[in-house]
Please model this.
Amino acid sequence: MILQGLTRVGAISTGNPASAEDYQLASDRLDSMCAQLAEKGVYYVADMDNVPSGAADAIANVLALSLQPDFGDRTPQGASNIPPLATLENDLRRMAPGKPGYGPQIVSFM
Model:
């Protein structure tokens, strides 16, 4: 997701790898961004290594949006097609696993 986010803002490309500083910035931003998404109730990432592909794509787009103030949009004309944040958050809400629903529990103490 980090490399995809950096690629989508044009910070890295073929023949132009990410510097350690850029990668670290994106990694830190990803951690804080995922915490914010969880706080808003949009999407909770329990394990970064096991994010479904659709959610990973949307998270990479959100990361790219959060990195644009730092990197600008250096993608070639027409190559960047990042949806607005509200659209991405709605997509992530739809992809979020539902909360478990438990019916009323009947308990007997006798």
Summary: The first helix runs from residue 2 to 8. Helices lie at 2-8, 20-39, 53-71, 85-95. The mean pLDDT is 85. The chain is about 50% helix and 0% strand.
